[in-house]
Amino acid sequence: MKLRFLVVCLAFALMNLPAFAQDNPSTVNASTASTTGVGAGDVGLYVNPIGIGIRNSQADFGPFAFLGDGTTKRTFYGADFGGYVNFYHAQKYDAGIDIRDVAVTGNSARLNSFLVGGRIAAKPLAEKFKPYAQLSVGVGSSKAPHSTVRVSKFEFGIYGGLDYTLSKHVDFRAFELGYGSVSTINSGNFNGATTFPNSTLFSVSTGLVFRVP
Fold first, then answer.
1. Is 60 in a helix, a strand, or coil?
2. Considering the entire predicted model, what is its pTM?
3. What residue ranges do the domains of the chain occupy?
4. Contacts with 74 (C-beta within 8 Å, 6 or more apart), sequence order
5. What is the pLDDT of residues 1-12, one digit of tens each?
6. Percentage helix, strand, coil, to 5, in the chain?
7. What is the CATH number of domain 2-26+34-212?
8. pLDDT in tens, 51-74
């Protein structure tokens, strides 16, 4: 469902690109304070590798211990799949939304995060470097290594990165750093005597962004 929702949103933006580009061109000159609309290069799609360091301040034990018995930190690896649409354009920055689905595993445990957020990207520096930042919220679904049960909880993430233009339709995402928080599955979810705080997430990602059309 989440992937279908993402695809529908991005497809809607792509189908309306020609009309938006004609009525609200995204190019901003010195005499224009701001414009709205989706023009050439305002839609980006990415599927990038990602590593997430997950930390708990309190160790858990038993079949629902997400990081493993007595473990308080572990690195998970996986893929970051998503896209963005810029629809507001000012002289020094563009703004829009980012929708992403992140799936990572570690020690047979799994975390899947579906996030929607607002993003702001600076106009290209030296014509090619584009720093950006975004705040995202959504749902994180976690499964412990020795259980088939999944728990879904609210998740937030703060991200910042730098894209470098390789060609008209391709950017190199030099890096993206993220910090977030989510309540992962734990013994306290199943009438346990202990209440566990949220896990903190520190992510690093890199790869390619394909801008369309």
1. coil
2. 0.83
3. 2-26+34-212
4. 53, 54, 67, 68, 106, 107, 109
5. 444 444 444 444
6. 10, 55, 30
7. 2.40.160.20
8. 999 999 999 999 999 999 999 999
